[in-house]
Amino acid sequence: MSTTTTHPSALWDSAPLDLPAYLGRIGHDGPLTPTLDTLRALIRAHLDAIPFEGLDSVLGRPVPIDIESVQDKLVRRGRGGYCHEHNTLFASVLDRLGFQVTARSARMLVGGDEHEMGPVGHTILSVVLEGVDWHVDVGIGNFGPRGPIPLVDGAEVSTGPWEYRMDRSARDHWVLRLRRPEGWFNLIQFTEEPCYRADIAVHNYVASTDPGSPFTQQIVVHHDGEDVRRTLNGLTLTTYRPGGERTRREIAADEVPETLRTVFGLALPEEHGRALVEFARSSAASPWAASLTA
């Protein structure tokens, strides 16, 4: 496998990226040419290897999103992250490989009405290949598509057994939906306006520090697998399978460190595990995170 790359752009500051270490972390040893097949393979490998989690926020630890910090956490230390971390890292990888990648900001719907304008705060990516604008998001948790979705009104795409649809709303926004047994489930909405590293930094600060953020209110850890998807929201461990089947059980606060290790592949320092146990014992449920298990 060759790791020869194009010159990185200033936008993503991808020069410090340790590309071989990242590829080792996700287990990708296939082609690196900037094609749609490569993009699909990288998305799948990234999601298989790196979970979605916001544990540093409940631990009261900072969540820096410069590329050195993000790759140290998600690549070298084997941790996960949330959207601003995942998509910053992934954009830097794509940029380094010669993809045309920019960022956008989205509004989380999580089943809500697309006509209700909630806050902008979720980071997503746009990758343009041969004139087609592809929506890419490796940082949305267990709901996320495991492949790119074209910005084409009415486009329906299966990423493995999970089906998605991209629609234009009455407000001329893009709305991404996930098929569930009861019908299409609204995930996010966004426009084609780009956002920049400074915008992502502001959204990241709010997500990691605001008392109203779901990531400061309770433990949130997800894994977006091919055939099985799992979430730990607070002390509720949920397993999702294609077709709508789901199982749910409550775990004890003392089970948190072992659950993170065995279910999500997260081995935290012992002191962090103890702190999470104490947090889980004392924290109240977050309405936003609770909706993720609905």
From TrEMBL:
PANTHER family with a match to the protein in the record: ARYLAMINE N-ACETYLTRANSFERASE 4-RELATED, N-HYDROXYARYLAMINE O-ACETYLTRANSFERASE
Protein origin, superkingdom: Bacteria
UniProt xrefs under Gene3D superfamilies: Arylamine N-acetyltransferase, Cysteine proteinases
Name of the protein in question: Arylamine N-acetyltransferase
The family this protein is said to belong to: Belongs to the arylamine N-acetyltransferase family.
UniProt xrefs under InterPro entries: Arylamine_N-AcTrfase, Papain-like_cys_pep_sf
Coiled-coil segments on the chain, per record: none
